[in-house]
Amino acid sequence: MAAGPSRLVETLVQARRRVAEIRRLLISHRDVFYGLARPDFMATEKPESRPHFIVLNTRLERAEDDVDHTRELVVGAFELLSMRAAQKTNETMRVLTFVTVLLGTLALVAGVMGMNFELAFFHSGQKGFLIVTGAMAAAALVSLLVARWRKWI
Question: 45 falls in which pLDDT band (50, 70, 90)?
């Protein structure tokens, strides 16, 4: 079962916190491990233990790199989720904009037809009403078909 967007965000936030905590723990030990692997650290160590300190420092550096890579993956996943939400919002806004323009155009036609001035067309009664209403319905249908064809809605 797929998790909802809020559950995914919660999971990503938890992962980001865990990665940050691990990163802080590793970085706090960096100076100690580097100091043990330095060539001038010979005061208390035996010469045969030096390779072990170098390997230990190398492993710490590798772990830091892995944590940094994991952090980048978590941030990338969060950005992907954010872009997906933005895309859905843009699609919704496109549909709402189209509907607003369509209804505004139809309201304009209805407003012009409702004006009080003397023309023969305005005295045509029910026939004129049906012609205007049919033309508005046809215009709306054509607009919807064009919008669907262009994938606006």
Answer: low
Model pLDDT for residues 106-145, shown as the tens digit of each residue: 898 888 777 666 667 667 777 878 888 898 899 999 999 9
Predicted TM-score of the model (pTM): 0.57
Q: Tokens 């390779």 appear where?
A: 51
- Reported as a single tens digit per residue, the pLDDT across 79-110 is 998 999 899 999 999 999 999 999 999 898 88
Amino acid (one-letter) located at 101: V
Read off the tokens for 89: 């919002």
Phi-psi region of 125 (alpha: psi -120 to 50; beta: other; left: phi over 0): left
Residues 6+ apart with CB under 8 A from 81: 5, 8, 9, 12
- Alpha-carbon distance 151 to 47, whole Å? 73
Reading the block at residue 127, the tokens are: 């026939």
Tokens standing for 1? 């079962």
- Spatial separation of the C-alpha atoms in residues 61 and 83, rounded to whole Å: 33
Single-letter amino acid, residue 107: A
The DSSP 8-state label assigned to residue 42 in this structure reads -
